[in-house]
Design goal:
Length: 286
């Protein structure tokens, strides 16, 4: 399949159709690499790790904060109870010494009640002190968690800035490469371009390879001597596939040879061989 003869393109100083295809493939490969680079920036993995760490610290903080809130609730309950017991003990103590109670048994009962309330208040205050001591390591842990989370948040912001800068750079390269692709695509017959695009979709992005010293650049496999010879005899702009991987092969001048009588030296060599076979030597045998 020839879209335009090699002779007319080479005469005009333009690239051949196959060379235009190769340039298009190079540009598409670069665009694929840019997309892959954008999706797999190393900072993305780092950011994911940092965000994961933030999530773990947040879950840890939630657990510690729940413990701290439980201590705080219990502390508030004890403080209220201490205040109530203290108030009641004060009132009973005032009655004891107010002179309003004169009966010995009633005075003795009031004294016992005040002593019991003071004892209860002391027990509550001891428990309250224990809770305050229990809150200290929880507060320290919350402070440590908040400090670590702040550090991780700052690191995530730094990584996001690096990613944003890299994305801007990649976007600029993508825009330039896309414009270059459009230029290459306009030099190719629409039917051939459609075939190229279809092959790229089927093969995961590679539809064209270069034949370099008998090796296909797409699959990196060396072709047989017979295949290389057959490809070398094709017109420079004729579409041919790699027999190993099926991509369109672009042959350079080193991989092509002249065909038929257009090569004077080859024609002369064939003529001499033919003549020697047709006219045997007349020299008599001795």
């Amino acid at each position: 399949m020839a879209v335009q003869s090699a002779a007319s393109r080479e005469h005009d100083g333009a690239v051949t159709t196959l060379e235009a295809l190769a340039q298009l493939q190079d540009t598409d490969t670069r665009l694929d690499q840019l997309r892959h680079r954008r999706e797999h920036l190393p900072e993305r993995a780092e950011l994911a790790g940092v965000l994961g760490e933030i999530g773990r610290w947040d879950r840890r903080r939630t657990g510690v904060a729940e413990q701290r809130h439980e201590v705080e609730r219990e502390q508030k309950r004890l403080e209220d109870e201490v205040a109530a017991v203290e108030s009641k003990a004060g009132r009973e103590n005032d009655r004891l010494y107010s002179g309003s109670v004169t009966a010995p048994k009633e005075l003795e009962a009031l004294q016992a009640e005040v002593a019991s309330l003071r004892s209860r208040q002391s027990d509550l205050e001891d428990r309250l002190l224990e809770l305050m001591e229990a809150a200290e390591p929880l507060d320290a842990e919350l402070e440590q968690i908040d400090a670590e989370r702040l550090r991780l948040t700052e690191e995530s912001a730094r990584l996001e800035a690096v990613i944003a800068a890299a994305e801007r750079e990649i976007e600029a390269e993508t825009v330039a490469s896309t414009a270059e692709r459009d230029v290459h695509a306009t030099a190719i017959d629409p039917n051939l371009l459609a075939e190229y695009d279809a092959r790229r979709r089927r093969s995961g992005g590679v539809a064209v390879g270069r034949l370099q010293h008998g090796t296909c650049s797409a699959c990196s496999l060396a072709l047989s001597a017979v295949d290389v010879d057959q490809l070398a005899r094709l017109p420079s702009d004729e579409i041919a596939d790699c027999p190993e991987c099926g991509v369109i092969l672009v042959r350079g001048s080193a991989d092509r040879r002249s065909r038929g009588p257009s090569d004077p030296a080859e024609g002369q060599e064939r003529s001499e061989i033919s003549g020697s076979e047709t006219h045997p030597s007349s020299e008599p045998l001795r």
